[in-house]
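INTERNAL TRANSFER SHEET
From: sequence group
To: structure group
Subject: Peptidyl-prolyl cis-trans isomerase

Please process the attached sequence and return the structure record in the designated field. Keep the field labels unchanged so the import script can parse them.
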Amino acid sequence: MRRTTLFTAACVTLAGVLLTGCSGEDGGGDSSAVPSALPSIDAEADAAALATVTQTAQPGTAPVVDFTPPLSVTGPVARVVQPGAGAVIEVNRAVVADVVTVDGSDGTEEGNTYDAAPQILMTDEANMPAALLDVLVGAQVGARVLLAAPVAEDRTTLWAFEIESVLDVPAQAEGTEARLQPGLPLVDHADSGTTDVQMPVIVPSDGPPPEELVVQPLLVGAGAPVTADSSLVVQVTGALWDGTQFQNTWEEGAGKPIVLSGAIEGWRQGLVGQTIGSRVMLVVPPELAYGDEGRGDLIPAGSTLVYVIDILAGI
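Return from structure group:
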C-alpha cells in the first residue's frame, strides 16, 4: 500500500543515515547501511545549497518543491521555509507532520504522506538528526521545514515537512489492570535511569514457549483503538523467551515513533485493536518475527520473542 512504500522511502532511508527512531522490522526499527566514506562536511556550502530550494503550497496541501538538480550536500542541513502560527514546539515532544520526499539528483518525488496519512516525529536526540531538531524546537505548528542529507556517497535526499500538530505523550501507560494468563512471563519494574518512572522488566517463565501469538493486555488504556495504519509512540522492552533482553527504549529516554505497517507481523497482528494508553505483552513465535534467520547477534534463529509495549500516543 502507498503508506508502506512511503515509509520505506522516506523514513527508513532517513533512519539509516540520521535516525534511530523510525519503525521497521524489529518490532521497533530497521536501519539502512550507511556509507563508510562520505565526504567531509562543508556546512556553509550545504546551507547555501539548501537556500536554493523553494516550495509553494497552501496549508494542508503537498508543496511544489523546486530546485535545479542535482542538489548535493555533504551533511544534514535544515531550515524553516515558512513559519507557523500555532503552538511552539518544544524538545521531547511528538509532532505530527506530513512530508514529501524528493530525490536530489533529479527532483523525482519518492514519497508523499499527503496521499496517505501523516507521520509522527519525536523532537529528541535519540530520534531526530541534530540539524532538524535545531530548527524544529522553537518553531510553531504550521511551519514548513526543509531537510537535506546525503543518503549515499553520490546521492542527496530532500524532505519537505509540514508540522500539523503536537501530541501529548505521557511518560508511561496508564489504565485498568488486566488479569495475566497462566504460563506467561511476569513483569517486574526497575529504574530506567533516564525517566522518573519505572520501566517494565520481563521475568521469564519456566514453561515452554507458546506456539501461537499471545496478546496479553497488562493495562487497558482509554484511548482510541490502534488500526493497521496507525503511527504510534511507544516504549518497548523486548526479550527472548529465556529472559535475555535485546531491546529497551526506556534507557534512551523518550518514546519511539513507529509506523505499525512497518513492524514485524506479530506486532501488526497483536497491536491492532489495542487502545492508546495501554501496556501490552506480546509473545511472538518465530514465524511472526524473524523465523529461521534471526536478527543480528541479539536474536538467534527460531527465537520466540516477548515484548512489553507501552502505547503512549498515536494517530
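Handover comment: The domain at 176-314 is CATH 3.10.50.40 (Chitinase A; domain 3). The CA atoms of residues 82 and 188 lie 47 Å apart.
Transfer complete.
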